[in-house]
Amino acid sequence: MVSERSQSKSIEPEEAWQHFGPDFVLLDDIKPPQRIELARERMLLSRLYLGLIQTMNDDYGAEFVKHSDSATYRTIGIYVFLRTVTCSPVRASTIAQVLKIPRATVLRRLNDMEKLGYVEHVGNAYRVTDKVNIPELREKLQRRVDMVLATARELSKLKAGPEH
Fold it and tell me: 81 with 119: CB under 8 angstroms?
């Protein structure tokens, strides 16, 4: 899904990240330690991952973040979402196998998400509910697209070589 905004206006790489604050600002004059291979590329991907996770935290609030294994919680939720949008509800055992997470953990997280109204049973499988349709979804998704595009532009500028 590409919006008119992304077609008509090319965002500056750092513009997509301004709202995250100084920890997410890239400084061109910083030279990562040479002992870390492809450090700049990996830094960009790490920033993208953290930024995307932060936007999910912002979107869905404390319900997802309060879990001690919130990364697992989000990962399971994303996988169930992916399977739902492909019209294929998914069993807990499949989630456990694909994501390499213990089935007991998957079942606990699915139970938590079901109590919160984000997933529902369909026979012996799970799918997301309409609760995933949060307010201002189009704008939030566009910010994520902008983050991905900005990161892709920065990555394309880098040359893989010994200086990284």
Answer: no
